[in-house]
Amino acid sequence: MTAQAKLNADPAELAKFSELAHRWWDPESEFRPLHQINPLRLGWINQLVPIAGKNVVDIGCGGGILADAMARTGATVLGADLSVKALRVAQLHALEAQTPNITYREVSAEALAEEKPGAFDVVTCMEMLEHVPDPASVVRACAAMVKPGGWVFFSTLNRNPKSFLFAIVGAEYVLNLLPRGTHEYAKMIRPNELARFARDAGLTLQHTKGMGYNPFTRRYALTEDTSVNYLFAMRKVDGV
Length: 240
Description:
There is one protein chain. This protein is α/β, with parallel strands linked by helices. The chain is 39% helix and 25% strand. Helix 4 (65-72) links the parallel strand 1 and strand 2 (76-81). It is globular, with a radius of gyration of 17 Å. Mean pLDDT is 87; it is low at 1-5.
C-alpha cells in the first residue's frame, strides 16, 4: 500500500478548508465560531493542566488559532496539519504577531506519532476528528505521541438528531454561523464511540464538557450538556 493510500485524510475536506484559508484570522469570517470558542477551550485546558513550560502539539491546527493562543500562554507548541494553505496562513500570522515558541509542520498525526513517540506533555485535537475517514487512527496517534501520564484533549460533535438540528441545520443553514457543508452527519462521533477509541489506545477519560451557543446573545459557553458539541480531557495510562 502506498503512503498516499494510507494517508488518513479526505481530499474534499482539505480542499474545503484550503479554499477558506486566507480568511482564517478574520474574526468576522466563516471562522468566527473558532475565534469565539477559543478562550473557552484554552481556559479549560489550562485549568486542568497549566501549559506554561509544557511541550504541546496541536493536531489539525488549521490556521493556528488554538496553537497560537497556547504558545502565548507559555507553552512550546507544534501545530500539525495537512492543509498547506492553512499552515502558510498560520506561519504568516505567527511572524506578524511575533508569537514565541511556535512552529508548524505539514504532517499527519500518524506520521508524527511514528517520528515522535512519547514526545509531548499535552496533545490537542480540536474540531478535527469529524473530518477524517478514520478517527480511531488519529486517536491512536495522539495517544502514541503523548508522554505516559500526559494529557490529550479532543473536541468534536455528537451524532444524534439534536446535533443534526443544531450543528448542521441551525449553524449552517439558519444562523449561517458556518459555511454550508462544513459537517457531515455520518462523520459525527458519539461520546461512547470516542471513549472506546481512546480506551483502546490506552487513554483514560478524566473530564468532559459540552459547549452551547445562545443565538440571542451570540455567545458560546461551556456546559455539562454533551449532546451536541463536547470536549474530552484524557490521560495516558502510565507504562502504555
